[in-house]
Amino acid sequence: MFDFLMNPEPGRSSGRPQLPLDIVSSIISRIESPADLARVSRSSRIHHFLTVPLLYKNVVLICRHEERKPSITLAQMGALLKPGIAACVRRLEVISEKPSGQDRRGEDRGVWAVAVVGIISGMNTLEEFLWNSESMMHPILYEALSRHPKLKGLRIIHPLSLHPPPPPSFAPPIIFRNLKSIHLTGLGSRTTYNWGMSSMPALQIFKVSWRISTRLSVIFPEQRPAKSPRVLKELHISNVVLDIPIHQCLDLVELQKLSLLDCSVGESSSWDEILCAEEQKVANSGSPASALSGGDGGVTRQSPKPRVRRLKLKSLRINDVGKHWISFLSSFAGLEELYILPSTSVIEEEAVEPFLDAIINFHGSTIRNLRLSTSQPVERRCASKLVRSCKGLEEVSLRIPKSEWKFIEILILLLTRIRVFQLLTTDLSSHAEEYDELLAHREESERQVAQGGESLMEIFGFGTKWAWVIDRTPSWVDGVDPETGKVEKRKVKKGHIERISILSEKVGVWKAEERI
Fold first, then answer.
1. What is the rounded end-to-end Cα distance, in angstroms, of the chain?
2. How does DSSP classify residue 392?
3. How far is CA 452 from the centre of its chain?
4. Where is the segment annotated Disordered (predicted)?
5. How far is the C-alpha of 173 from the C-alpha of 175, rounded, in Å?
6. How is the chain split into domains, by residue range?
7. Are 96 and 63 in contact (CB under 8 A)?
8. Cα–Cα dist 299/293, whole Å
9. DSSP readout, 355-380?
10. Distance (Å, whole) CA 492 – CA 472
11. CA proximity to 449, closest of 425, 428, 421
12. For residues 299 and 292, is the Cβ–Cβ distance under 8 A?
């Protein structure tokens, strides 16, 4: 293979200079467009050898159903069946489209599942599998994924309109020994796909949402107080009744990311009990117990003080603004991301100032991304206190009264590390008015950002739909001095208006809006 790569191809001129292979590989690795990669792969054998692993690294397989028969592009199937192609796939996404909202049943469903299983058997480097369909995954395909030796991430997406799943299976849960991340949406019960927490010993990230409300004790049935809690890095659940404290089923101290959306508390529990991190005591075996003299002349031995383990939580996402969350935020330090999304069921009556006080007092030195999508606005005094205390903010999304919009320019200049600032507003009645308001202040925004010197400001979001994307390199334009009327050069950072939905994948305060 080395001789093949180094020697010129037959029939080609060897007089032209050739770039070293590592430089060619580095250049090709920077090509993002699949169409461009395909063109490069057809230019020479060496280029084909270097581009194929990149071209087939992420594969999307689409099955369309027309006239009651499943059909798939033959080129897709044929390419994946070629020698060496399947071994390049790291991420496989299967999109199954079905007509008229009916689930596929019968022999064709099994044939399609067997065909996908045959393709997956040759993907010995597959790490992530995504099923995006309005129909349930066939058991044959589900069991084949559980046996894959390299699979680390499994994501099964179903819309909320999915028909009720089949009756639960009483068979033992299918074991995923190497799975580290699982993401399931639109489930009807824990046994929809016949899974259990104990059957995934290497799991670190757990993201699941239910169409029908379920209980936390049902999700973790094998975790009892007598057993040691399960260790996870991330927990993201939606539409769950928290009937038992989280620390009974998970080691809450070891969690780094937590998302609880549309969750409620059981009748016999309280939020304070659910969120309480059990104080786990660690004995200090290196120092002897202290001796105290008793009243009768005897000696009473006292064990050393236990050390309390603090939460390591870095990211918190909720859509509830109750006082219990203020107590929770005040119980630890070091939070980097806080996303409070709009509540769909709770009527907000409390002001946001207690939340800001808890953030400032306990997380002011570490918080980077902050989103407060509450109905109550943030007053000028609270915003000033936030800016003075949280110097490291990079992404901010706040609701500020219209009378204080002028004050935002000062806020942006004081936050030297700010990259994204979103002004949430309901004062304007439509997205068209928000667009006109953003466009009307275009010149002023360009000038203000340019005057900020080494400002890192990249995006200014106005409302919930539009954002002003700022160019990094400033430019000089002709301007008129309002006092003298003379034409003079001024420094500006130009930009353009973009939809927030297009930028959401790059911005944390907007990506947090995605439901589980």
1. 47
2. T
3. 31
4. 285-306
5. 6
6. 22-56
7. yes
8. 5
9. HHHHHHHHHTTT--EEEE--SSPPPH
10. 10
11. 421
12. yes
What is the three-class DSSP state of 155?
strand
In degrees rounded to 5, what are phi and psi of residue 368?
-115, -45
If we measure between CA atoms, which residue out of 185, 206, 179 comes closest to residue 133?
185
* CA distance linking residue 414 with residue 397, whole number of Å: 16
- Tokens describing residue 41: 């792969």
In sequence order, the 6+-apart residues with CB closer than 8 A to the CB of 433 are none
3-class SS of residue 354: helix
pLDDT digits (tens, 9 = 90+) for 116-159: 888 888 888 999 999 988 777 888 888 899 999 999 999 998 87
pLDDT tens digits along 39-92? 888 888 888 788 888 888 888 887 765 554 445 555 567 778 777 888 889 999
| Tokens (6 digits) for 293 | 């003299």
- Say what the pLDDT of residue 104 is: 45
Give DSSP secondary structure letters for 71-83: E--HHHHHHHHST
| Residue 293: other Cβ atoms inside 10 A | 9
The residue type of 484 is T
Q: Return all residues near 474 (Cβ < 8 A) that are at least 6 apart.
A: 450, 491, 492, 493
385 residue type, one letter: K
Centre a 10 Å sphere on the Cβ of residue 180 and count the other Cβ atoms it contains: 16
Contact between 373 and 342 under an 8 Å Cβ cutoff? The reply is: yes
Structure tokens at 203: 């799991």
How far apart, in whole angstroms, are the C-alpha atoms of residue 513 and residue 1?
A: 49
Please, are residues 419 and 458 in contact by the beta-carbon 8 Å criterion?
A: yes
Q: What is the pLDDT of residues 154-176, one digit of tens each?
A: 999 887 665 555 555 556 778 89
